[in-house]
Amino acid sequence: MTCLTEKWLILHLFLLAACYMQRSCAHGESPQVKCIYVFSDSISDNGNNNNLDTQAKANYNPYGIDFPSGATGRFTNGLTTIDYIGELLEVEDFIPPFANLGDSDIRKGVNYASGAAGIRNESGKQLGDIIPLRQQIKNHKTIVSKIIKELGGESKAKEYLKKCLYYVNIGSNDYLNNYFMPKIYPTSRIYNPEQYAEVLIKQYSLDMKELYILGARKYILVGLGLLGCLPNTIAKNGNNGLCVESQNAASLIFSEKLRSLVDKFNGKLHDSKFIFVNSTAGPVESTPAFTVTNAPCCQTRPDGMCVPDLIPCPNRDDHVFYDAIHPSAAFNKYTALTSYDSSISPETTHPISIKELAQYPIN
Ligand SMILES: *[C@@H]1O[C@H](CO)[C@@H](O)[C@H](O)[C@H]1NC(C)=O
Ligand SMILES: *[C@@H]1O[C@H](CO)[C@@H](O)[C@H](O)[C@H]1NC(C)=O
């Protein structure tokens, strides 16, 4: 959800990407982490909304056109950012959705993400049923109880769970599907942007403490993109094709507070490590790789999602956006790589990269 226009990636990035992304490159290696648990929205949803009564679902063509098994519920043409992060960490399989675990091993991770969900229970509700962050954590609680049983006791489970990564990428819908919809939600009349971000971060902070009680120690907390630059936002606000700066400013306040929360937790929460991912940072010296930065690849509905069953653009790798809200798989790959490896983009992660977090020893 970024709208970087000038600073682009270097050839270096592509060469690295080519190596990382080839399964052969990772072959024979053991994964860098044993488990990843995902708390998020449509940016990471891989099927949790498919059977919910909601408009916020993507289990239809042309979503998934570049995914091996087609449309799965992922809100993009191919892999999501967390799918790519899993590959970079040499995790063998995709993290399964909570709603459809089948016979997958819950000890390798579960994806609780739900399209349109936010930190606040009501965010995204105008689109139908969603699974807010609070409920995602409750779902994790039931998974942790099962792991305690499987491993034969709470202390064994804790010993195991502390080595997992906890990826939290949420908050966009508390703006897009709440604060920025004054006709449906009253929050923008109750709070100014500073106060609203503060209320969200307070709740977020409590939620992270709850995850801590459930054994989480290594956290990846992802900041918001430039929400005012989403093609859908630009189209709706008719601002001569320009980004809506007030919306960018509001989302930046949230991200700055999230970054401060990371610093606070790192000083305070015993034996844990938090990192912040800056979704609007990127490599500085670079050449343009994405030639279409502000238009969707598929034909979109008024809500910004793809119109079902129409053929999308052929040059998907040139596009930052797939529909009018969600990034293309090519952009997700770029996002994953810059947050995984700090040698590519030192300012994206703080204080350490995902690669370093994976290796970080926890007592
Ligand atoms: C949000 O939903 C959870 C259940 O998912 C519930 O326990 C909690 O009380 C709700 N919070 C508010 C503020 O309504
Ligand atoms: C993220 O990076 C951008 C570009 O370097 C910077 O302007 C912004 O302040 C950063 N955001 C946070 C929350 O640190």
Automatic annotation (TrEMBL):
This is Uncharacterized protein. Its main location: secreted. InterPro entries: GDSL, GDSL_esterase/lipase, SGNH_hydro_sf, SGNH_plant_lipase-like. Belongs to the 'GDSL' lipolytic enzyme family. GO terms for molecular function: hydrolase activity, acting on ester bonds. Residues 1-26 form the signal peptide. Keywords: Hydrolase, Lipid degradation, Lipid metabolism, Secreted, Signal. PANTHER family: GDSL-LIKE LIPASE/ACYLHYDROLASE-RELATED (PTHR45650), GDSL-LIKE LIPASE_ACYLHYDROLASE (PTHR45650:SF75). It holds the Pfam family Lipase_GDSL. CDD domains: SGNH_plant_lipase_like (cd01837). It is found in: Secreted. Gene3D superfamilies: SGNH hydrolase. The keyword Magnesium does not apply. The keyword NAD does not apply. One of its GO terms (cellular component) is extracellular region. One of its GO terms (biological process) is lipid catabolic process.
